[in-house]
Amino acid sequence: MTPFLRLSSALRGGSIRYCHRSVWASHGTERRVGIDLGGRKIEISTGKLARFADGCSVVQLGETSVMVTTVSKTKPSPSSFLPLVVDYRQKAAAAGRIPTNYLRREMGTTDFEILTSRLIDRSIRPLFPDGYFYETQVLCNILAVDGVHDPDVLAINGASAALALSDIPWNGPVGAVRVGLVDGEFVINPTRKEMSSSTLNLVVAGAPSSQVVMMEASAENVLQQDFCHAVKLGLKHTQQIIQAVQQLAREQKVVKRTPPKLFNASQEMVDYVRQLASDEIYSVFTDLSHDKISRDEAIKKIRLVSEEKIKERFPEAEPFEVMEAFNAVSKHIFRNLTLSEYRRCDGRDLTSLRDISCAVDVFKPLHGSALFQRGQTQVLCSVTFDSLESSVKPDLITTALCGVKDKNFMLHYEFPPYATNEVGKMGGLNRRELGHGALAEKALRPVVPKDFPFTIRVTSEVLESNGSSSMASACGGSLALMDAGVPISSPVAGVAIGLITKPNPEKASDIQDYRLLTDILGIEDYNGDMDFKMAGTNKGITALQADVKIPGLPLKIVMEAIQQATVAKKEILGIMNKTISKPRVSRKEHGPLVENVRVPISRRARFVGPGGYNLRRLQAQTGVTISQVDEETFSVFAPTPSAMNEAQEFIAEVCKDDQEQQLEFGAVYTATIIEIRDIGVMVKLYPNMSAVLLHNSQLDHKRIKHPTALGLEVGQQLQVKYFGRDPTDGRMRLSRKVLLSPAATLVKTLSEKNSITMGTVDDQSSTLS
């Protein structure tokens, strides 16, 4: 290794330090750059590891390091979209652990890995060129974790650097930071300890020129002005990371490859389709009698006829070109209707909500239920209570790598194929369902009390889908929680904001004009440039997720979207409050119960039973779940009131009052032997009392191996002295030997020995005579 050369350059709002180090003369060089973000230094390096990949970078913060590689095929895949795969994988070795499964190796994919993969995907996908349909893979490999800094945001920056330093066509780089709010102060890339007391968890991915590419946040009712300030602060710091990666790319002299072909329809073919079908497409999009299904069917008929005529006109056209030509015309007409005429295909103006209806207590046997309908999006939510033992307990590796802890609140989102009039596979969990459920869970978690005595599971089943089913799940989940009597601090509502933009013809990355749409339909999401979901209470924001489909959004548009979503959110809450405005005072009669039972130490052994036998019998017979809270308290969860009654009767029988309370410390009692054991005798002081062990060590002053050495038998009565209960295990303490005189025992022992000796002498004398 040759000595490294260090260059320093100051950049706006922070500092970047660039290091060039020779690694192996025959293999290349390692380049390294450091970025100072609010006193925390991030280092990005390349050129040392995984040099066969198209691009590789290692990002380090503290002692946490993530390596990201990217490879893209040079031959196109038979697809009509970008086949981008992002895999974020947790490695047990990075946390100094060994997997606990039977193979002792990483198996399957955890929820956190899937959600982080989606986070990275949404940050980099918008910056690929239109028509680039070449299979691309981004792999994020955690090398080391220090338990202080989380690796997920580092992985976003690593993916950005790997793509920017490769020859893959990509209009990056992007930068990403996490913003926390601790004690009223904003913190960039907070540590795990700081995040534990933070009321905000915001991840911002920014593009050059201070544009937003992706946002995801969970918050504890953070005010709108504070949230907007956090976005601005985070975006400012992303620019430092972008400039550092750009500097690395310049030093490496990156040259992007030219794809053999970009999968876009020719302008000639698009013009022909526009002449052929634009009037018919326009009439469908302006016919307010259509709903989702009929509109799709009408466009499909026009498509089939148009494709046949395109094939006749352009016989050598490939199938994707025919499809793309029609899609381009259809999308342009739909977008122009909003941009130029301020019209939407269902007749609403740009800021109007669809018709909303709510119902609660839909099914009586459920602990809580609600049906939320917004336009043609319909969601059925149910609430189920269970014991705290049913809380989500992540594996040790996930806890060590990302700090995820137990949680007693979860929301599961289901999207069956019939919701969109399709036939599909049922069962399993796809990434979309997991992501939508996680967003709705983030929206509701801040208002659920942390000390609630049950584990809460909200299930959201989408029965009809025409846009923003995740935000409908947040609304329906809030209603179901109130119906179940969960004392949430405030009702929660969510809404999706869409965007239609008109690019600047001179500079495509600039936006010349735009329209923000409130409560978007599925077709507005498909043909639009953004899906901006925000949820919260009347006071503030609890969750946000922005999926941007263009290479970046100006901060001005993001701020307007937050304001427009805030207005819509309050309107939705007003409609929901007409159905139910606050949680029920009491939970439903047939719902579960939880009670704390105090068991004195003196009776704990009897309550638990030998080897936990009594507890297991109680749970098997009644269906309750019992867990120990502290030394004298047990928590009893019963799924129904009748089960709780059975359990209480059982507990009362096991721990019923007996004559033990009459016993006096230091008093002498007559005990009856009921069983002989190797270690002592089982005795009873009264017939209705439990048997107590009188240990061999307390039977006599001399050491014995078995009670029969003293001639003890079942039914025999003994005088014993009572010394109360043992404070550690609650067992009754009895002793017989304290009532025996040690001197008498010694005399008795010597007499026995003398008699044996005299007997031996007499025997010898008789033998001699």
From TrEMBL:
Molecular function, one GO term: 3'-5'-RNA exonuclease activity
Quick one: a GO biological-process term for this protein?
A: mitochondrial mRNA catabolic process
InterPro entries tied to this protein = ExoRNase_PH_dom1 (IPR001247), ExoRNase_PH_dom2 (IPR015847), ExoRNase_PH_dom2_sf (IPR036345), KH_dom (IPR004087), KH_dom_type_1 (IPR004088), KH_dom_type_1_sf (IPR036612), NA-bd_OB-fold (IPR012340), PNPase (IPR012162)
Tagged with keyword Nucleotidyltransferase = yes
EC class? transferase
PROSITE patterns, per the entry: KH_TYPE_1 (PS50084), S1 (PS50126)
**Span of domain S1 motif:** 666-737
Keywords, alphabetical: Cytoplasm, Nucleotidyltransferase, RNA-binding, Transferase
Q: Name one GO cellular component term.
A: mitochondrion
Q: What is its EC number?
A: 2.7.7.8
May I ask which residue range the UniProt record assigns to the signal sequence? Answer: none
Highest taxon above the source species:
Eukaryota
Coiled-coil residue windows: none
Q: Which family does it belong to?
A: Belongs to the polyribonucleotide nucleotidyltransferase family.
The name this protein carries in UniProt is: polyribonucleotide nucleotidyltransferase
> By which gene is this protein encoded?
PNPT1
